[in-house]
Design a protein that fits this description.
Largest sheet: 6 strands, mixed
Number of helices: 7
CATH class: Alpha Beta
Shape: globular
CATH architecture: 4-Layer Sandwich
Length: 293
Amino acid sequence: MRPDVRAFFHRPTSTLTYVVADLVAKRAAVIDPALDYEPASGRTGTLAADEVIAYVRAQGLTLDWILETHAHADHLSAAQHVKRALGGQVAIGRGITAVQGTFVKVFGLGGEVATDGSQFDHLFQDQELFQLGGIVASVLHTPGHTDDSVTYLIGDAAFVGDTMFMPDGGTARCDFPGGDARKLYRSLQRILALPPATRLFMCHDYQPGGRELRYETTIEAERNGNLHLKGDASEDAYAAMREARDATLAMPNLIVPSIQVNIRAGHLPEPGPDGVRFLKMPLDVLGKPLGPT
C-alpha cells in the first residue's frame, strides 16, 4: 500500500520530520520530530513540533507511533512533546543500547541515564513487522552512521534517517563514536536492494549549491546517481573515500545537547533542586585537536 506522507522542514537544522498516514484508517506515525533549540542561550522551544501536532489534529489522525531513525547528533528530539500532545509509542532500533553505552561514558552520565533503552516505549528488532492502520511496515537495521540507525519501510516508502541523502548529497558520515564506514557500505547495499520504485525519504537536506529543498527520491535514482555510490564501488574503495572525507568534517554544532537528550528518548535532563536543568560538556573528547598536542 501507498501511505500518505507529509514533510515538515526544520530550517535551523535542515531536518525533515514526516507524518506518515493510512488516510482510510486515519492512523499515523510521526518520524524524527525536531525540538527548537538556541545554542547561545540554551533555550528550547516547540514551534516546529507544534506545527506537526496541529497538522495531525487537523487531519483527524490518531497517532500510533513516534519513530526515531537514530539518536541524532544534529537536532534535539521533540518526541516527548509530541507524545504528551497526541499519544503514541516512542520507538527506535534496539541498537540504541550500544549508543547509550558509548555516550554515557563520553558525557559522564553514569547513574543518570540507563543503557537498556528503557526510556523508549519500544525497541525494534531487525526485520520486525508492525502496522500503521492497514499498512504493513517493517524495520531494517542499517548501522554505520550510528549503531542504532534503522530504516522504516512503510508500504512503498522508506525512511532512511541519515544513512544517505539525496543523490547530490551522497551518504552519511561515520566518524562519530561507534560509527563504521564498512558497516555503512553494507547497510547502503541492503537499502539499494529494495525495489527500484521504492520511495525514499531523507532525514536531512542541506541543499547543495543553494538548490531548492528536495527530500524524496527513489531507489533507482540513488543507484544511478548518488554522489558516493555511482558505479560499482567496492567496500574497500567506499570505506577509503568515506574515511578520508570524514577526516575533513567538523563536529555538528548541536552534537553535545542533541546526544544527551536523544539517548533519553527526547526527555530533557532532570531538573535540580532549583528547577534548572543542565547538560554536560566534555573537554578534549569529541572532534579533532585544535592544534599540536
